[in-house]
Amino acid sequence: MTKNKQQPILLGCLATEFKTIQAMVAIYCQDHHQTHALCTKCQDFLEYTHTRLDRCPYGENKPTCKECPIHCYKADYKQRSLQIMRYAGPKMLFRHPLLAIRHLLSAKKAVPLKPEANASNRHKRKMTQLR
């Protein structure tokens, strides 16, 4: 997926969350894989997270993944996510302070007990395309 194709799909707080994940993956990949561009493994992880964000049943009311009662990542991607976030999280305060603070604040929001029906970003996008 190209960057141009990804940007208009996720809207609002989902786009901000994806920017945060992109920044974390870039930090992790640069430090662990010694590349300036993302390696194929990290690019694959980013594409997977993009899809999961798009299909999140909470949509715009999405809690942070750590606080979410619905775990939608496959086990290997979840493990990779933990590795990336544990490594890059502390570095985010220095490299991307606004994204880091927004992420920390969103972790403090109350988690909705049950997602509303048809709240996912993907569902809303499909409904607007039908009109």
Compute the number of helices: 6
Mean pLDDT: 87
* Series of secondary-structure elements, N-terminal to C-terminal: HHHHHH
Low-confidence spans = 1-7
Q: How many angstroms separate the termini?
A: 26 Å
Using DSSP, what is the number of strands?
0
Our Rg estimate from Cα atoms comes to 15 Å
- Portion of residues in helices? 55-70%
Largest sheet: none
Indicate the overall shape. globular
Secondary structure category: mainly alpha
Strand content: under 5%
What does this structure look like?
With 131 residues, the protein is mainly α. Helices cover 62% and strands 0% of the residues. The chain is built from 6 helices and no strands. The chain has helices at 3-6, 13-33, 40-54, 75-95, 97-106, 121-130. Helix 2 packs across helix 4 (75-95). The chain is globular and about 45 Å long. The two termini are 26 Å apart. Mean pLDDT is 87; it is low at 1-7.
Give me some keywords for this one.
131 residues; mainly alpha; globular; disordered N terminus
